């Protein structure tokens, strides 16, 4: 047994160099081949009647429905509503998260006042507040935006706070020997040093904002992608539900790309961001 | 021009009134442990280059941190110029600012960039003015740190083992650069180092610290540039190694 191992080992080692040259391209092909084949199987199963279209619509049907919903204006209208909710919620979360992190990151007193209650609150699942929010804010836009804002504030706060607290003390010492004022130290040393962590927080926050929105729009809403999907459920329109899912997926993907773009632009000083953009 | 950093105890005026830096009776201890600095007296004349040698834990770093204003003076007194600069073992450049912005960090004025470029050219870094610090080599980063120290035109420059992390060849180049810069700027210099040869190549005076006190304080009366082959070099090397407790030379 061990003899065969030794014999096969050497030719593989010799071939390793030319192999690594064409492997990346093949890697991309195999990466996309698998999902593509799955969609193909799905379509085939629906076409020959293996999968009931009442349970799940075929890919072709989803594309057709998506196009129809776009043409009659249903999809654009609901998408705009959802985007506005996520955008407002995220905007509030960003302002609140950054302000709180600055207060608790830059002063000990601020940390004592702000950090402890936030650490307790963050252990609560934000979605559990839905009933309370409906009681407080009714069923209009406010509870949905508030839910998005609440859920996505935490990752922004936590990451920026960590970033501010973990600035290299040697750089702060250097700033002292250069005679930098407190305000200048914050502007030139602390904030840029914490920016990578803030962007990590932002990426999490964007992901959470979509999650919050899905729930908020399915519990009570008369517009939005979630509402469109709930409506479709009543009429057994699996194709519309799946269009909604695809839209959510695309939104998540697009927002992640935006944050990546922000990272590449704002953190261009990091060598890793120039070499490996795909990481 | 000189400012008293802090005096907590009434002390007699030091003998050398013309000195740039005067340390008198400086004592520092952490907790209940033994004194890291023990009633230390040290004076550095304007434009004088002093090398500070000693084992780890002899109090070198504590003395430098006190002179740099990073540690408080609790016992004794320290008088030093207002304009001081420190170069640490690590360059401590801000990775998110370009080299020239790092150089003039905290400086004001519309001619900031011009001043940065001038001093970067002086340290041989004129071609990396717009580079990001993380793309610099170790030697280049230390050159940038030197430029950042010099742009402030310090009357007193502290160098805390600035070449310890560099390879041998780069270190030689950097020692020559520091020597040239000092001849041109003529500020008082305190160089903390482990390297006896470095002290002998660069300094006017070598001070050996042991358990918070000065054990040896010898002038180095050799012309520059200095050569290892000089018999006085060998002689002084023997003295310094002896007081550092190394007897094999």
Describe this structure in words.
The complex is a heterodimer of chains A (about 280) and B (about 250). Chain A is built from eleven helices and no strands. With about 280 residues, chain A is an all-alpha fold. Chain A has a domain at about 80-265: MetI-like (MetI-like fold). In chain B, strands 6-7-8-4-9-10 form a six-stranded mixed beta sheet, sandwiched between helices. In chain B, helix 3 (about 110-120) crosses helix 4. Chain B is an alpha/beta fold and about 250 residues long. Chain B is built from seven helices and ten strands. Chain B has a domain at about 90-155. The termini of chain B are far apart. The interface of A and B includes residues 171, 179 and 184 of A. Chain B: Keywords: ATP-binding, Cell membrane, Membrane, Nucleotide-binding, Translocase, Transport. Chain B: GO terms for molecular function: ATP binding; ATP hydrolysis activity.
Count of distinct strands of chain B: 10
Helical content of chain A stands at over 70%
Order of helices and strands of chain A: HHHHHHHHHHH
> pLDDT under 50 segments of chain B (min length 5)?
7-15
Low-confidence stretches of chain A are 1-17, 274-279
Could you tell me the mean pLDDT of chain A? 86
Please state the CA-atom Rg of chain A, rounded to the nearest Å.
25 Å
End-to-end distance of chain B: 44 Å
Strand content of chain B: 25-35%
Distance between the termini of chain A: 40 Å
At the fourth level of CATH, the homologous superfamily of one domain in chain A is MetI-like
Strand percentage of chain A: under 5%
Q: Write down the overall mean pLDDT of chain B.
A: 90
GO molecular function (chain B): ATP binding; ATP hydrolysis activity
Family (chain B): Belongs to the ABC transporter superfamily.
Keywords (chain B): ATP-binding, Cell membrane, Membrane, Nucleotide-binding, Translocase, Transport
Protein name (chain B): ABC transporter ATP-binding protein
């Amino acid at each position: 047994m061990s003899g065969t191992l030794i014999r096969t080992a050497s030719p593989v080692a010799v071939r390793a160099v030319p192999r690594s040259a064409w492997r990346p391209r093949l890697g991309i092909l195999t990466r996309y081949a698998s999902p593509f084949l799955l969609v193909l199987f799905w379509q085939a199963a629906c076409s020959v009647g293996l999968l009931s279209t009442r349970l799940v619509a075929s890919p072709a049907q989803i594309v057709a429905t998506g196009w129809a919903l776009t043409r009659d204006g249903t999809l654009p209208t609901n998408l705009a509503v959802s985007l506005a909710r996520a955008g407002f919620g995220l905007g509030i979360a960003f302002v609140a998260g950054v302000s709180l992190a600055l207060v608790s990151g830059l002063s000990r007193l601020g940390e004592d006042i702000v950090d402890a209650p936030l650490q307790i609150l963050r252990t609560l699942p934000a979605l559990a507040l839905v009933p309370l929010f409906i009681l407080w804010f009714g069923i209009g836009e406010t509870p949905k935006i508030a839910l998005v804002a609440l859920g996505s504030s935490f990752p922004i706060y936590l990451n920026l706070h960590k970033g501010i607290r973990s600035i290299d003390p040697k750089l702060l010492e250097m700033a002292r020997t250069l005679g930098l004022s407190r305000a200048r130290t914050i502007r030139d040393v602390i904030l840029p040093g914490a920016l990578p962590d803030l962007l990590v927080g932002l990426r999490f926050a964007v992901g959470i904002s979509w999650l919050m929105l899905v729930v908020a729009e399915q519990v009570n809403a008369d517009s939005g992608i979630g509402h469109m999907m709930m409506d479709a459920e009543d009429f057994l329109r699996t194709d519309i539900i799946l269009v909604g899912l695809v839209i959510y997926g695309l939104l998540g993907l697009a927002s992640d790309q935006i944050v990546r773009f922000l990272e590449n632009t704002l953190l261009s000083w990091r060598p890793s961001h120039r070499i490996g953009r795909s990481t | 021009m000189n400012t008293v950093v802090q005096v907590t105890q009434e002390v007699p005026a030091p003998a050398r009134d013309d000195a740039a830096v005067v340390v008198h009776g400086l004592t520092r201890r952490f907790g209940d442990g033994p004194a890291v600095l023990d009633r230390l007296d040290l004076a550095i004349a304007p434009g004088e280059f002093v090398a500070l040698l000693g084992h780890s834990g002899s109090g070198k770093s504590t003395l430098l941190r006190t002179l740099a204003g990073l540690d408080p003076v609790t016992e004794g007194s320290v008088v030093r110029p207002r304009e001081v600069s420190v170069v640490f073992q690590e360059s401590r450049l801000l990775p998110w600012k370009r080299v020239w912005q790092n150089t003039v960090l905290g400086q004001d004025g519309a001619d900031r960039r011009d001043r940065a470029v001038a001093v970067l050219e002086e340290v041989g870094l004129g071609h990396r003015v717009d580079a990001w610090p993380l793309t610099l080599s170790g030697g280049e980063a230390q050159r940038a740190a030197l430029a950042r120290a010099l742009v402030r035109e310090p009357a007193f420059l502290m160098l805390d083992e600035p070449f310890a992390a560099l390879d041998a060849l780069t270190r030689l180049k950097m020692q020559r650069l520091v020597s040239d810069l000092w001849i041109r700027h003529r500020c008082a210099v305190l160089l903390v180092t482990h390297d006896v040869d470095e002290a002998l190549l660069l300094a006017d005076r070598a001070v050996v610290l042991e358990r918070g006190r000065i054990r040896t304080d010898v002038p180095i009366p050799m012309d520059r540039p200095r050569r290892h082959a000089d018999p006085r070099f060998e002689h002084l090397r023997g003295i310094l190694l002896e007081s550092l407790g190394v007897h094999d030379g």
